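Reviewer 2 asked us to include a model.

Predict the structure of this chain.
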Amino acid sequence: MVFQISIGDVLALSKLAWSISQAFTSGRKSAPAEFQEVQNQLSSLCHALDSLKSLSLRHSTSADAGSGSNSITPILQNCHFTLEHLEMLVSKYMVIGDQEGTSESQRKRWREEIRKNWKKVRWTREGGDLARLQHNLGVHINSLNLAIAVLNSEINQNIGHQVEDVHGMLREIYTWFTRNLKGRVTSFHKPSSEPQDGSPELTFSLHRGNPESYDAAPICDNASFNAEWLEHLNKPVFQCNCRHQRTVYGDAHDEELAEYFVSPVSLIVRLNGLSQSWKIWLSSGRTSRLTSLIMSNIPSPKELVAFENVISDLAITAARPAIHQGMSSIMVFPSINPYMELPVISVLNMLCDTRRLYNSITNVKLTANGHRYSTGPIETVQLVHYRNLTSEGAWLFSETADVILNTHSEAQNFDITDDGISEFTLTVDNQTDVAGGENASHVLISGTDCLSRTKAGRENTVKGVYVEIELRDEDSATYLIWQLRHLQAGLLLFKIQQIQRNEKLVFELGLGLLMVYDYHIPDATLKLAMNLKTKDYRLLFSNASRSICLSIETVSSKSLQQTAKASELYPSFDNPCWVAETNLDGVRIYQQRRRASLICADAHTQQLLALMLQSVVRGESA
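Predicted model (structure tokens):
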């Protein structure tokens, strides 16, 4: 059946719940302590209604919403009755104070009679007490969450059916391809995923774990991984190859490298966005403590692919305790992919150095919905990015990164710390506006989401937050802006190279030699991904070493349909295209805005590419 829920009705109900929750919030100093739980429940109800609003938008383009939508209407009606009665009570028992310099919502307080006689108030339409109101709110929240889960499941099932239809068509194409081109498939190029014979061994430089000393002499400038170091935890991770090559740092470093072993929390993460440096955490046999080293100077893009495979293997090893024992830390923890509502393991993927900012933030102002909060002094800042390991063993990269602000343990006299909030997490993507403020020591972040977490673990999310970060001096502010932009550059790089967590892989195809723009990409691979929220497509191209990667952005279903139905054999796209080139000097990212025509050197591969794009269009119209 067609989805019958009006987005306007859900939005109006959400605004009503938010308005009442703000009344309970602003009046809490004049209210009995029992009102605190009602305030928390109203906030949870707002979040549930916001989720339903987002779900309604996802359903608006669906031809079949499933039977789950039948149960939403009575839930919303009952919720409306409860909120309407509460709104009447707020209007009756709240007054506006006469404090100057504050907004009307901040001056609201409960009448004195409510403090004395709140047990006699009829908190529900049926004349129930406050406990009955709390029960009703809990029923509304649980019912909404259950219905949302059912509807979300139906959406994902519909998407899954569409992708399965496409896969079925691809199997038909493959059968046609092998039947009609039998005896001529020798000209068909396939990407060489296996390392070639005689390929150079993966080597790198090792430095102490202080990013500020990268330019100092390395521990070893020609190190490599020991064979089977991941399988045998009592085997040193590194070996020195300097004996095979004269270096300015000496002949061999075997003794020093022999002290580093894999730890259960060992991980390799990229540093500072586009830099060609990585940080690894290992166990030191000399100190019996966890220590970190910096890895850099990987000689070629071909070795870089091998290195990325090592990073993934170590990440899977680090994820096992989270999978089997439920263990979690800032580096690895179980989570839910919000776009698929499926469990994943989040693993730290990128980190920006922020140690210079320790105790450098004097205050952070958070402004949203006409309200402003101050955090007080911030002790530590962490800029982190995660990738997600799915149950199928695939890696999906988060499209956003986190700015984690930990409040000072001795912060006092700031309104938000009265609630025991110890951590704020700001969400940024590669397009989030980051700039300096009018005051040179301030940093501004616009339109972000903010998750606050109390010492007891209670969480609350506010969207559309304007953030003003106040630092001790201009140098600290400049450094923070640099690091945030490094973080955004890294996000853009991972987007160009990898499937994101808000996307689903539709198909992957080896193209052999591909000509697009003025690039000749040997051993090219195409991945077609669909955005689970917008339903737009993205085409990702790369060579075997990923030294050249292209991402043709936001190809709509209509555009893909027009391209696939065109009489010409060579698909063309007018959409913007991001390009990432990796070489010994680093990573260069830029954008192409010309029309892109996809030309394969092999004629049979060209025909197969056109057929596969057509199969996607057929799958959508089926």
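The chain has a mean pLDDT of 81. The longest helix spans residues 130-180. We have added this to the supplementary material.
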